[in-house]
What does this fold into?
Amino acid sequence: MAKISICFFNLYLFKTELDPNKKKPQDKQIPPSEINLCDCLYSYLNGIEKYQVQEKEKRVYRVKYLEKYESVIDGVHNFYRINSIIYTGPFGEDGEAVDKDHTTSEPEPFGANKALAKPYGFSIIYNKKSKQALVIAQYLGNKSIVGQLKIIISDALRELDPSLSYKINPFIPADYFSVIFDEKSIYKLHVTTLQKKENHLLDETDAIINGEYHEPISEKTEHIYFTPKPTITDKLKNLFSKPDPQNSIIEISDFIGINSDSEEVDNIKVDFKDQTLNFSRMSSVRISNDISNEIELKANSSHPTESSLFNAMINHAMPYLKFFDISCDNIEKEDRQNTKVNNFIGNVKNDDLFSELTPAG
It folds into this structure.
């Protein structure tokens, strides 16, 4: 079974407005509650029971599960939340579908017009005071719903108001980095480096004159440390001890010389027991939480039940919610109000494989 994990993102909303003092329209950030983001997405997704074809992206998707509600604790509004399971997958490649238990049987052809769609969950949370929304996205191995979710959000906002736009970035609290390195032991460290191979056969000037000059080729090498070098971990700790690393653009080239002076660091990946920190620059840092052992699987399936997936999401979201003015106290007293749930059956021949597609309108 592929590892099931979740990642966290910031979702910012903007509205394009004309500023009388400026010639060009300006994008003004607005809170998600101003447009009732949960209602906007629910209205857009509700009813997408049949598969939609996205020819440009060569993907299909449909909604399997959709839920939205307002969390109220002791009569006081706490947050809005929308949960959904989206089946999505690529098409465009043909092959054969083989039954591993009956390899002597003739395999069924798998045409380029078919897709293997798998379920991915996401959750979006914010409250009336939040300046942005928290997005929690599920991953299956290294595949996720994030790309598809961006398309859905973009289309839903455009349908509501063409002047609306958004930005979504990985989110990690500033103090989260130092806590990880202080409390967790590193299982494995991957350092990918680039080393330039110079052409010493000709002088560079002569090579240019003779039309034989070529840019030096960079050779990529991945170094894996099961016992991480202190020089690397110390630099990482110093990097993450900055006041606000989430908003600091720190190039990975800052780590040059970790292996040798002739190598430039291309990427660093840190494996902890249940988390992986992978980045090429600070703006793309993303933390994933492995929840494979926390969820329940559906009968005869490798996919999680809706309730166990969304419960795991909210449990891991606790350290993040304070940044969205959301209280984690007395969450067990939560009263779900204005709840709407749709669990679509869908036009599917079996849980994953299908052939009937509906063009996206």
In short: Confidence is low (pLDDT under 50) at residues 243-250, 346-361.
